[in-house]
Amino acid sequence: MLKGIAASPGVALGKVLIKKEETFEIKQETVLNATEEIDKFNAAISQCETELQKICQHTKENIGEEEALIFEAHIMILQDIELLKKVKEMIQTESTNAAYALSQVRDEFISIFEMMEDAYLKERAADIKDVTDRVIRILLGIQTEDLSHLDEHVIIVAKDLTPSDTAQLDKEKVIGFITETGGSTSHSAIMARTLEIPAVVGVKGALENIKDDDFIAYDGDEGCIYVNPDESCINMLKKKQEEYNTFKESLKQLIGQNSISKDEIQVELAANIGTPDDLEGVLKNDAEGIGLYRSEFLYMDRNNLPSEDEQFEAYKKVAEGMENKPVVIRTLDVGGDKEINYLDLPKEMNPFLGYRAIRVCLDRKDIFKTQLRALLRASHYGNIKIMFPMISSVEEIRSAKAILSGCKKELQNENLPFNENIEVGIMIEIPAAAVISDLLAKEVDFFSIGTNDLIQYTVAVDRMNQSISYLYTPFHPALLRLIKTVIDNGHNQGIWVGMCGEVAGNPDLIPILLGMGLDEFSMSAGSVLKARYIVKNTSQALMAKKIDDILNLSTAEEVKQYINQLKV
Amino acid sequence: MFKRNVKVMNKSGLHARPAAMFVQEASKFQSGVEIFSNAKKFNAKSIISILSSGIMCGTEIEICADGIDEVEAVNKLAELVESGFGEEKIF
Predict the structure, then answer these.
(1) Is A152 exposed, middle or buried (0-12, 13-18, 19+ CB in 10 A)?
(2) Can A56 be counted among the known catalytic residues?
(3) Which residues of B touch A76 (CB under 8 A)?
(4) Which residues neighbour A87 within 8 Å (Cβ) at sequence distance 6 or greater?
(5) A500 in catalytic set
(6) When comparing pLDDT for A410 and A58, which is higher?
(7) Partners of residue A156 on adjacent β-strands
(8) A336 pLDDT exceeds 70?
(9) Nearest CA to CA, how far is B85 from chain A (Å)?
C-alpha cells in the first residue's frame, strides 16, 4: 500500500497506464550563426504559443474558464521579456544552441522560485518548467506521449502531470490518476476536482512500485493506494464507490426540491454572498434565498464612498436575479480593523468591542441614509429585507428604524417607488442581544443569528489566536442554550428566526437546529444541497424531543458524542 | 525618472492574476519600469520577475519609471495596486 495526498474525491479501481518520463538530453553545442539560431528560437516560441492557445481554447470549452487561466499565465511566461532577452543574449555571446541557452536561463529562474517557502511560488517553478520544456521539445524535435486518445479505461500513474497533460486527458477513458509529485493545490489537483476524476498526488515511490497493467484501487478522499489488492479490499472499495456515486446523484436530485423534513416541516435554505458575482453559485446550487448579503464589499478596495446610485444598482441586480426569493441585505458592517481609509475610523485598542457596524451608521447618519435609500429603492425590484448588524439594545433598533422612516418619507415625496412593507430585522451576535431577545423581538420582523461572532463574544475568545482557538467551538453548551433562547423568544413574538453563521451549514448541527425550530439556514452556496439532504432525512419532532437532554450536557465533548450517537 | 510608493493591499499580494494585470499594464508603456521592494529590484514588465518577487499583502513597494511616459506609467500602476486589483477581501 502506498500513501499520498488526497487531491480529488471519488473511488477509482482499474488498470494502470504509466506515463513515461521523456528524459531528453540537452547537449551544449556551438553554433556558427547566432542570428540564425535566434531565429530558430523565435520560431519555436511562436509555435509553442500557438499550441498553448489551442490547449487554452480546448480547456475553456471542455473544462472551464477558471482552469483555462493557467494556460493564459503560461503564455505570459512564454512572452516574458527577461526570459527572452537573457536567452537571446546567451545565444549571441556564447554562440550556443537555443535549447541549451533556454535550459540554462530557465534553471536560474526556477532555482529562485524553488528557494521560496511559499508553496504557491514553488508551484510557479513547475509552470516555468512546463512551458520551457515544451519549447525545448520543439527545438529538439521530440514528440510527446498522447494521452488524449486512449483505447481503454485506465488509471494514469506518472511522475508528474503538467497542466497541459491534465487538460488534454481523454476524459472518457481516464478514470483516475496518481502522481509522485505535487500537492493538493497544484494545477492537476485542481483540474481533477473540476473534471471529477479521483486523484492522489505526492505518492512517493509510485513509479518504483507500480508497473504498466497492474490493477490498483484507491479512495481519492483518503490517499491510500492498493496495488493488486485482494478481493476483500476490492469489495470494500467498490462498496465505497457505490455509496459515493449514489450520494452524488442524490444531491443532484435535490435540485428544485423543497427543504422539508421527514415529518414535513419546511425550512428555508439560503446562501451567504459578498457581491452580485456570487449570484451564479447561489442559483446553481438551488438556494432558496440569500440569508446574508455582506454589503461592505461595496465600500472596500476604493478611495471614496459608494454613491446611492452605485449601491442601488448592486442591490437591484441581486434582487432581480433572485426574482421573488428573499434577499436579506446587512447594512454596513465595518470597523477599525478593516482598511477603509476614507472613512477615517479611529485606530482602537479593541476594534471588536469598538466603533463599528451599526454604531458607525447611527453616528454618521449621512452614510447610513445613503445606504438605506439605496436599499429602499432596490426593494421595488424584488424581495429585499434589511438587517442591522451588531445590535446590542432596543434603543439602537428604534434609532435605526426612525432614520429608515425618514428615508421612506423622502422617497415618497420624491415619488420614487419602494416596498412600503419591507421587512426589517437584526443580527443576534452580541450576547446582550441574545439575553434580551424577548424584548428585541417586539421591535423587528426577524432575527438572524451570527454564530461566528456570537461564539467569540460569548466565550470571550479570538478564533484567530492560535494559543486559545480550541475554545472556539460551536458545540459549547452556552452557545446552544443562547440559540434556543433566541429562537423561542422570536417565535413567542411571531417572528421568524434564521442563522447566517458557519454553524448553519454544519452537518452535525443542522439536525439540532432543526429540532430547536430554526426557520432559515444561510450558508455558503456549495453547502446547500448537502444541507437539504440532511433536512429531508431528519425528523423535526424526534430532534425536538432531544433538545432538553442536549442543553443539559456539561461539555462540548459530551455534545459531540451525543450527536455522533444519534447518527448511528 | 519618476517614482511613487504604494502599499499592496489585496489579499493574495502580487500573485497570479494581480501579477499578470500588473505586468500587462506596465508593458503598455515605452518607459522602463521597475519596482523596488525590500531593497531588491524587479522588472515590472517581466512576469517571471514579478512572480519571483513574492510580494505579499501589506508590503510597501516603490514603482519607478524612466522614459517618455514615466509619470503616466507610475501613476497608472500605483492606481492599479491601490485599487486592490479588483480583488475581494474575505472576512
Answers:
(1) exposed
(2) no
(3) 20, 23-24, 47
(4) A41, A98, A101, A102, A105
(5) yes
(6) A410
(7) A17, A177
(8) no
(9) 9
Residue from the list B23, B47, B54 with its beta carbon closest to the beta carbon of A118:
B54
Q: Kindly give, in sequence order, each residue whose CB lies less than 8 Å from that of residue A42, ignoring residues fewer than 6 positions away.
A: none
For A117, the closest chain B residue by CA position comes to: B54
pLDDT in tens, A180-226: 987 766 777 777 876 778 999 989 899 999 998 899 999 988 889 99
Nearest chain B Cα distance for residue A296, angstroms: 10
Chain segment B3-21, per-residue pLDDT in tens: 999 988 887 778 777 888 8
Ordered DSSP codes for A259-273? -B-TT--B-EEEEEE
- Integer-rounded Cα Rg, in Å, for chain A is 29
- Between residues A289 and A221, which one has the greater pLDDT? A289
d(CA A439, CA A526): 35
Whether residues B9 and A274 touch (CB distance < 8 A) is answered with: no
CA distances from A244 to A6, A10, A55, A156, A318 (A): 15, 7, 31, 21, 34
pLDDT tier for residue A339 given thresholds of 50, 70 and 90: low
Least confident of A117-131, A435-449, A518-532: A117-131
Q: Which chain A residues are within 8 Å of B46, Cβ to Cβ?
A: 80-83
Q: What digits encode the pLDDT tens for the residues A155-180? A: 999 988 877 788 778 888 899 999 99
**What gap in Å lies between CA B83 and CA B18, rounded to an integer?**
11
Does position B91 have pLDDT exceeding 60, yes or no? Answer: no
Q: Is B20 on the interface with A (CB under 8 A)?
A: yes
- Are A529 and A254 contacting, i.e. CB atoms less than 8 angstroms apart? yes
pLDDT at residue A191, as a whole number:
73
Q: Which of A383, A427, A388, A423 is nearest to A288 (CA)?
A: A383
* Residue A85 scores a pLDDT above 90: yes
Give the minimum alpha-carbon distance from A311 to chain B in angstroms, rounded to a whole number.
17
List of chain A residues whose C-beta atoms are within 8 Å of the C-beta of residue B43: 81-82
Task: Note whether A216 and A14 are within 8 A (CB).
Answer: yes
Question: What value of ipTM does the predicted structure carry?
Answer: 0.81
Q: Is A135 on the interface with B (CB under 8 A)?
A: no
DSSP label at residue A306:
P
- Say whether B23 and A76 touch across the interface (CB within 8 A): yes
Distance, in Å, from the CA atom of A239 to the CA atom of A242, rounded to the nearest integer, reads 5
